[in-house]
Amino acid sequence: MADTKASVTHNDDRDSISLEKEAGVAVAAYRPGLSAEDAEWLDNIPLQEQRRIFHKVDRRLVPMLALLYLIAHLDRANIGNAKIEGLEASLGMTGTDYNIVVAIFFIPYILCEVPSNLVLAKFSRPSWYMGTLVLCWGIVMTLTGVVKSFGGLIATRFLLGVFEAGFFPGAIFLVAQWYPPNKSQGRMAMFYLSSALSGAFSGLLAAGIAQMDGLGGYEGWRWIFIIEGIASVVVGGATFFLLPDRPSTAKWLQPDEAKFLELSHLATRGLKRRNDDGETARKLSRWSVLKMVVGDYHLWLQSLVFMSNAVPNYGLKFTM
Fold it and tell me: Are residues 112 and 238 in the same domain?
């Protein structure tokens, strides 16, 4: 019975293509997930116009993601600068205490990434979710500057891992909403570069802030957390207004520009749109998709490549 239904569906698709041919629509205009009319409209957009639209998105989305990722790396790695300024002595830390503080961040960071994106997908305005994450980790970072014990430092680092976990996968999710797969990688690389930029000046910034030692009765290392935490709170508040959500809600896009981006998203991902009768094609469950992704060996190869970069990178950030 299932084979019969599949055959009927396949025949219907071929019939629809034949009808489109008779109506004068080129077969090249047929794309899974789009009506014949939308596919033809999309294929008639000149390449130069497509580039102009994507560059327009670049100016709005990529710089904001780069700034947020820069802030995230400053906040997670500034504990290394605080250590130089006397963190361990002030809190009576000995032996492997510092190593534990560094490691505790990554436990929730690893565990919360996938669940965070599942939550993000339910938001009609991703900027609200992302902005909330930045606000929360900014508050946690600020409070790190007033901890009185090793246990308090452990708690703040754990919470920092919880809230920062959602940003990077959330940023990838946002990029995927705006760009087709063949244009996503370059944009991801652009904002990922900001993590390297953070290492270029974080030490100088921390050294400058540490000169506030004694101001208000706080040591210099405390001011590093407080000042950088307040900066994160400010940027988090701006995220609600400056981070684009989706093409359909972007007031800075013309209607045709938003339509192009939405149709490109649907076409390149093969999503099924509602047909004329209001029926929807069967969709894979999220768990089925997750199982398919986890079973892809490319994912594990990419993970190994990322680890080969992250391990020495974080080792330098936290110990030098």
Answer: yes
**241-275 pLDDT, tens digit each:** 999 999 989 999 999 999 999 998 888 775 444 44
Same domain for 195 and 102?
Answer: yes
Question: Residue 231 belongs to what H/E stretch?
Answer: helix 220-242
Q: What whole-number distance in Å separates Cα of residue 168 and Cα of residue 157?
A: 18
Any domain includes 115: yes
In the chain the first and final C-alpha atoms are separated, in Å, by 66
pTM above 0.85, yes or no: no
145-174 confidence digits (pLDDT tens): 999 999 999 999 999 999 999 999 999 999
- The number of residues in the chain equals 320
User: CA-to-CA distance for 157 and 153, rounded, in angstroms?
Assistant: 6
Are 181 and 264 in contact by the 8 Å Cβ rule? The answer is no
Q: Is residue 3 scored above 50 in pLDDT?
A: no
Residue carrying the six token digits 């921390």: 206
Structure token pair of residue 228: 């950088």
pLDDT (0 to 100) of residue 133: 97
Please tell me the number of Cα atoms within 13 Å of 269 on its side-chain side: 18
Better-scored residue on pLDDT, 30 or 130: 130
Contacts for 227 with CB less than 8 Å, ≥ 6 apart: 209, 212
**Chain segment 187-233, per-residue pLDDT in tens:** 998 888 888 888 888 889 999 999 999 999 999 999 999 999 999 99
Whole-number CA gyration radius for the chain: 24
Task: Single out the residue of 123, 91, 313 nearest to residue 222, CA to CA.
Answer: 91
Q: Domain span at residue 296? A: 284-320
How big is the CA angle at 190 (ends 184 and 195), to the nearest 5 degrees?
A: 125
CA-to-CA separations, 99 to 56, 130, 168, 226, in angstroms, rounded? 44, 29, 24, 22
Q: Which of 162, 156, 159 is nearest to 225 (CA)?
A: 156
Give the integer Cα–Cα distance in Å for 223 and 229. 9
Q: What letter does residue 217 receive in the DSSP assignment?
A: G
- CATH code for the domain in which residue 177 is found: 1.20.1250.20
